[in-house]
Amino acid sequence: MKKILFWAVIMLFAACGRIIKVSDLQYKEGERAVLYVFYADKAFDGEAWSDDGRSYKITVDCGILKRLECFDEDGHLFYVFDSNDRTELYFNEKGNEITERQARDLYPNKYKHLHNVLLEEFTDIINQRVTESNRNDKAVNMKAPSHNDISTEAEKELMAAELEINKIHEEIDIQFAKLIAAKEKSTTDNEIKEIIDAINSKYARYYGFLLTANQDTSLYNAARDKVKSTIAVEILKKRKQEALDKIHEEYYGY
Q1: How many C-beta neighbours within 10 Å does residue 119 have?
Q2: Which of 8-17, 98-107, 127-136 has the highest mean pLDDT?
Q3: pLDDT of residue 250
Q4: From CA 254, how far away is CA 250, in angstroms rounded?
Q5: Phi/psi at 15 (nearest 5 deg)?
Q6: Which of 135, 137, 151, 130 is nearest to 38 (CA)?
Q7: How many CB atoms sit inside 10 A of residue 188's CB?
Q8: What average pLDDT score do residues 108-118 get?
Q9: Which residues, at least 6 apart from 226, have a Cβ–Cβ distance to it below 8 Å?
Q10: Are 144 and 133 a contacting pair, CB within 8 Å?
Q11: In the chain, which residue ranges form alpha helices assigned H by DSSP?
Q12: pTM above the 0.70 mark?
């Protein structure tokens, strides 16, 4: 189960649509320097990039800005701001952490570009979008959820997701075990075909081809794992969105 969930999470983050830009988002300042992030009037969750798609990106967790990363012209990570502990980190081309003084002395051009261009641009976007959000009555009157509220709701949805995934995975295991057992017992082709047809009709869209009676059991196992991991991704995405929707409904009223 842990292996399936691991790959499910990997697939969840690998599957993405268009790139969201920092300038596409809305922002609201909260207490203790917390910055809330919204997209299309919903709490944003994921990554957003600079307009050029490569200079910097932010990481947002359930509507709260967690991290800002800036890159040099060669795509190397140069600067990180972590909002959890308000720390600023610098890195060389090899990915090793260096001090701010080393960054300034060893890479003066990068350092100036970071502070005079990238961070200025990022700050300007945030300030502009915060101002726009504050013009909206909904944004002005919003009661922002606490970290505990978000964590509790996320934990509840995760537990529900695990129960749902376990139940569906058990059903899938039974069906594929029945197929493999029939194959190993040299059951008649018609009987195997009947089992395979039932599996294909329900799960072929997940593994992208049709299983047949003359295939090796290792392919059946691979198809089974693909079905389980893909379904787990779907459930995790659904539960995550449900958690965000509940938070919005309770705190923002829409």
Answers
A1: 16
A2: 98-107
A3: 61
A4: 8
A5: -80, 115
A6: 130
A7: 10
A8: 94
A9: 206, 207
A10: no
A11: 2-14, 100-106, 108-113, 119-134, 137-141, 147-184, 189-207, 217-251
A12: no
